[in-house]
Amino acid sequence: MLEPLLFAMFSGVAIGCALGVVFHKNSVHCALLLVGVLLSLAGIFILLHAQFVAALQVIVYAGAIMVLFLFVVMLLNVKGEVPLLTPGAAKGFGFFFALLILVELLWTVLSPGGQEGAPSEAVGLPRDFGSPAALGRLLYTTWLYPFEITSILLLVAVVGAVVLAKRKFF
Amino acid sequence: MDLAFFIEALVKILVVLGFVLLGVPLIVWMERKVLGHMQDRIGPQRVGPFGLLQTIADGIKLFFKEDLVPAQADKVVFAIAPAISVVTALAAASVIPFGDQFRIFGRDVPLHITDVNIAILFLLGATSMGVYGVVLGGWASNSKYPLLGGLRASAQMISYELAMGVALVPIILMTGSLSLAQIGRAQDHMWFIVPQFVAFTIYVICAVAETNRAPFDLAEAETELVAGFHTEFSSMRFALYYLSEYANMMVVSAVAITCFLGAWHGPVLPGPVWFLIKLSLFLFFYVWLRATFPRLRYDQLMAFGWKVLLPVALVNLAVTAVVLVLKG
Fold first, then answer.
1. What is the value of ipTM here, to two decimals?
2. pLDDT category, A121, cuts 50, 70, 90?
3. Residue of B278, B251, B252, B250 lying closest to B263 (CA atoms)
4. Do the chains contact at A28 and B139, CB–CB below 8 Å?
5. Three-state secondary structure call for residue B2
6. Residue of B1, B154, B171, B182 for testing the chain A interface, max A β-carbons within 10 Å
7. Which residues of B touch A165 (CB under 8 A)?
8. Residue B40, by phi and psi: left (phi above 0), alpha (psi -120 to 50) or beta?
9. pLDDT digits (tens, 9 = 90+) for B87-123
10. What is the rounded distance in angstroms from the CA atom of residue B81 to the CA atom of residue B240?
11. For B233-266, how does the pLDDT look when each residue is reduced to its tens digit (9 = 90+)?
């Protein structure tokens, strides 16, 4: 009884905030609304018994990345941003990608294979489902290679950032 | 979800909330008194016995002060920024165990509001959200000093959060659990400060920086930034920032006690009493630090966090992992 209510609340807030991110003029307000989206997503993760992912969502995205976003926005104090595309072209691209995502979502939901992956109600989940231990075990066994490749990718990004920032010393 | 569960949760929430809200004026009083004596003064003594009611009087005074909002401020963000600070500090307090469970009316009552199995991560998440209160307060004032204070605070808190998190990982490795109640229970025989003294030191330093307290109070360095991020805040909004600072101090101290100083364990006296004693001593230590050390320079602060604390924390983590594997 409580679960659909909470889901409605979190998803409602997420959608509302997401609309705010798109339509708000002030970039700091946009960033804040994005934090709202990320937090409600964390709530939805908890409803899905994925507490660890929810915690990471809050710490990494809402807590670290968005603070850096805000930091940059505040430091640069963007008044009127210089548009990359003409308004017409931007709208065209926007609608194109929105349509693409819509088609993709509909494809996934409506295709016969798509519904097998999403059980309609909570089937017997293992007791430690979503716990850090279970997730860690999966990451270091079944998904070891993707996990390590992602780590190397991040390492490359870190080294790249340092090299770019320290260029004047070379 | 039966009625007893509901009542139990409600009572515990009220107890913790009341404890934090009543504890803050006491800590402020203790700080002023201890600082006074350390500086060869006597501190507050006029209001109430030993000046005990001084903070209450100050609170009432703040309550009746005019609520000023700068004309060019971002009104909405200016209003929610202090609230974010308080909410995150209080939310963090909800996972802290202040005693072992006991039986009453045939129910096992654990002494914490909730023990999610990701309690430590929840805490780190709550503290990382607490950054927003400071940053946004600085930005929304639309004034130079608060903005600089807010920017300083955000960089500082992100940097020290990292080392703080890494310093807590060895504890998680040793107990095999992210639950604070489990970590507390695991220190039945030996406090974790003994094998993890390095981690404890790093954690304490980071905790001071994370709560923006002297000698790491660069975000409100009065010689350079007036009052930093809360320069433009007055009346209850200022009081909320004040409250959140001290509530945060209580939370990080409680985490230090739970993770390193044997949680509620101690001879003779019951658990919650021991917890209170340790908490008071730790808060005294906080004030002691403030009276002892001069403020750091900003570049020193950042260099210390990234070039000393984080590498040491990482090495400590690696050594702990290797030792644990070798021991089997």
1. 0.77
2. low
3. B278
4. yes
5. coil
6. B154
7. none
8. left
9. 998 888 888 887 776 666 666 667 677 777 788 888 8
10. 10
11. 877 888 888 888 888 888 889 888 888 887 787 7
Number of alpha carbons in the 13 Å side-chain half-sphere of residue B290: 25
Enumerate the residues of chain A whose CB falls inside 8 A of the CB of residue B158. 64, 67-68
Which chain B residues are within 8 Å of A131, Cβ to Cβ? 117
CA-closest candidate to residue B149, choices B272, B241, B40, B285:
B241
Record: contact B151-A75, CB cut-off 8 A: yes
CB B317 within 8 A of CB B64: no
Paired tokens of B132: 């927003």
What the block records as the tokens of B55 is: 């903070």
Cβ atoms of B133 and B85 within 8 Å: the answer is: yes
Residues A65-114: tens digit of each pLDDT:
888 888 777 777 656 566 666 777 888 888 899 899 999 988 888 876 65
Residues of B with CB under 8 A from a CB of A: 74, 76-77, 116-118, 121-122, 124-125, 128-129, 131-132, 135-136, 139, 147, 150-151, 154-155, 158, 161, 176, 178
CB pairs under 8 A between A and B: 69
CA distance B18 to B21: 5
Mean pLDDT of chain A: 81
Which of A62, A68, A131 has its CB closest to that of B117? A131
Token pair recorded at residue A86: 């003409």
d(CA B38, CA B49): 20
Is the per-residue pLDDT at B77 higher than 80? Answer: yes
The answer to whether the beta carbons of residues B137 and B152 sit under 8 Å apart is no
DSSP string covering A118-143: S-SS-----TTTT-HHHHHHHHHTTT
Over 80: is that where the pLDDT of B5 sits? no
Cβ–Cβ < 8 Å for B217, B295: yes
Q: Any idea how long chain A is?
A: 170
Tell me the per-residue pLDDT of A57-69, one tens digit each, with 9 for 90 and over: 888 888 888 888 8
Cβ contact A132–B155 (<8 Å)? no
For residue B127, give the chain A residue with the closest CA: A63
Q: In degrees, to the nearest 5, what angle opens at C-alpha B235 toward C-alphas B83 and B24? A: 65
State the CB neighbour count (10 A cutoff) for residue B259.
Answer: 28
What does the alpha-carbon distance between residue B33 and residue A50 come to, in Å, rounded to a whole number? 47
Q: Using CB atoms, which residue from B121, B147, B150 is nearest to A55?
A: B121
Question: Which residue of chain A has the CA closest to B138?
Answer: A74
> Tokens standing for B296?
């750091």
Closest partner CB to A74 (pick from B116, B121, B151): B151
> Phi and psi of B107, rounded to 5°?
-120, 145
Q: Are A75 and B151 in contact (CB under 8 A)?
A: yes
